[in-house]
Design brief:
Layout (H helix, E strand, L loop, with lengths): L1 H38 L2 H22 L2 H7 L5 H33 L4 H8 L2 H17 L3 H24 L4 H22 L10 H35 L2 H35 L4 H28 L1 H9 L6 H27 L3 H53 L4 H29 L3 H23 L2 H30 L1
Helix pairs in contact: 1-7, 1-10, 1-17, 2-4, 2-5, 2-6, 2-9, 2-10, 3-6, 3-9, 4-5, 4-6, 4-9, 6-8, 7-8, 9-14, 10-11, 10-13, 11-13, 11-15, 11-17, 13-14, 15-16
Length: 499
């Protein structure tokens, strides 16, 4: 009992600081998007979006699944860390060489000569990533999310300042390149000096093989997942122009901000905790259930509200030149409902050591998902591609649900029943809000305010009157967090009185 309570407090503390990091960087990124969307063009964002798939795949090769393996292993040694560090560094050198000499061919593929030099400079981030991946994983392993939060926020603020100045001076796409390099580089430097860990001059093949046994399948899983997640961007960049890619990138990044902001806070903390309780299936089932229901209670209404208010939000934040992003954003919100819950199930399977199972089913999901996307594009163009992306996310979620049902014991029908109340109320509130908006026929911003107030009134009214299980779990999380703050404040007061 005391062990479970200790895990709960670890999770609460981790979530506080992960939330500080996530929402601070989210706010900084939000401000950055608003300012840069006014200073730069969809073409500039489209150029960076076209290169995203190559950068993400290269970063996946560097990590090789070893980051997850180090967290999953209960007591990694100095030899383990050093071995992974030198592996990461070697892969960074190799992959940068590949990117450097492939850049002209990639630029010809998109028929945009400027992308050659952009990719060569952007690729330098691989070395930065190789240098801080061990420090970041050590801090996650120790649940020291406070340090990660402070460093990430400071780096983001500095990067934002430089990026805005460059965009204002007319640097175009290079402002976005600088933003990525400065943020990652400053984070790496601070981590290197903050954490006293240094690699030993050793590389153990025995350690490599041990970590590789788990990490190899995690690497393949991440590789396939990242490729499929950026695949639609590759298609859009090839079939359409950079501006269309820019509109899609803006819609995708805005939706991602909503669907992942909460889920990443929770899943980043819970993966190390899942690994700690991997031998106790009852505790693990309860953790997955609570996390899933809490996430759905928060994220589902958020995404439905954004879907309803997409047009006024985009005009207010990004100006009318980004209006073409609105329908893309609305469709992606539907995909986000499934995507925000996927990591919960997949991390559970990984944490109990089922990396091979994770990889096999990821291959199945992603191949079928790519089929949805390509088929949709071929039949109905951009609309078909977006619908294929929605089918991809929901199909993946149902597969993940089945894996948790089989290997953890949290049955798929139980999962559906647990999600049903939040889903019904979220959809019903959206329908009522939309219908009221149509009846009142107000101008753009008053219409958005009325829809928002109606939706919130319905959702909170249901929560306070019926007190569903998901609402109670959400309250428990809040109570745990606030109790920690009160306890810290009380202890601080006692220390001051003692002095």
């Amino acid at each position: 009992m005391s062990e479970t309570k200790g895990l709960k407090h670890k999770a609460a503390a981790g979530m506080v600081w992960t939330a500080v990091q996530k929402y601070s960087t989210m706010f900084i990124g939000f401000v950055s998007d608003i300012i840069l969307a006014r200073l730069l063009t969809p073409y500039d964002f489209g150029c960076i979006g076209m290169l995203a798939i190559f950068m993400v795949l290269a970063e996946t090769f560097i990590d090789g699944g070893f980051g997850s393996a180090l967290i999953q292993k209960k007591r990694p040694t100095q030899v383990d860390y050093s071995t992974v560090f030198f592996w990461n560094l070697g892969m960074a050198v190799l992959l940068y060489i590949v990117l450097f000499f492939s850049a002209p061919a990639i630029a010809r593929f998109y028929a945009i000569p400027e992308l050659c030099s952009v990719l060569r400079v952007q690729g330098l981030i691989l070395f930065v990533y190789a240098f801080n991946v061990i420090q970041r994983n050590q801090l996650k392993k120790k649940l020291n999310f406070k340090a990660i939060s402070i460093v990430t926020v400071v780096s983001s603020i500095v990067a934002l300042t430089v990026t805005i100045l460059m965009a204002y001076k007319g640097c175009g796409v290079w402002a976005l390149v600088a933003k990525n390099l400065i943020s990652a580089g400053l984070t790496s430097i601070i981590f290197w000096f903050y954490l006293k860990w240094r690699p030993a001059w050793t590389f153990s093949w025995q350690s490599f093989k041990e970590l590789f046994g788990f990490g190899f399948y995690m690497f393949l899983t991440h590789l396939v997942t990242n490729f499929s997640s950026k695949f639609q961007g590759l298609l859009i960049g090839k079939v359409y122009n950079p501006s269309t890619m820019g509109f899609y990138s803006k819609a995708s990044s805005t939706e991602h901000l909503a669907s992942h902001s909460i889920s990443q806070v929770m899943t980043q903390v819970t993966y190390p905790l899942y690994a700690e309780v991997q031998d106790d299936m009852k505790v693990l089932q309860n953790m997955v259930k609570r996390l899933t229901m809490t996430l759905s209670y928060i994220t589902f209404p958020l995404l439905f509200v954004l879907l309803l208010l997409a047009k006024p939000i985009f005009i207010l934040l990004y100006t009318e030149k980004w209006l073409q992003s609105v329908p893309y954003f609305q469709v992606l919100c539907i995909a986000g409902l499934a995507q925000c819950l996927q990591a919960v199930n997949m991390q559970t399977i990984s944490a109990i050591g089922k990396s091979k199972v994770t990889f096999v089913w990821t291959m199945v999901k992603r191949l079928i998902g790519i089929g949805f996307i390509v088929g949709g594009l071929a039949l109905w163009g951009m609309k078909g591609l977006l619908c294929g992306a929605v089918l991809n996310q929901w199909f993946s979620y149902f597969v993940n649900m089945g894996l948790v049902s089989k290997h953890v014991g949290y049955k798929w029908y139980r999962q559906l029943l647990d999600l049903l109340p939040v889903t019904i109320v979220s959809v019903a509130a959206a329908i009522v809000s939309y219908a009221c908006g149509r009846l009142l026929n107000l101008s753009l911003y008053p219409d958005g305010v009325v829809k928002f107030l109606i939706y919130v009134a319905i959702y909170l009214g249901w929560s306070f009157i019926f007190k569903p299980e998901s609402y109670n779990y959400f309250r428990t999380v809040l109570d745990t967090l606030f109790s920690r703050f009160r306890k810290r404040k009380k202890n601080k007061t006692k220390r001051q009185e003692a002095q």
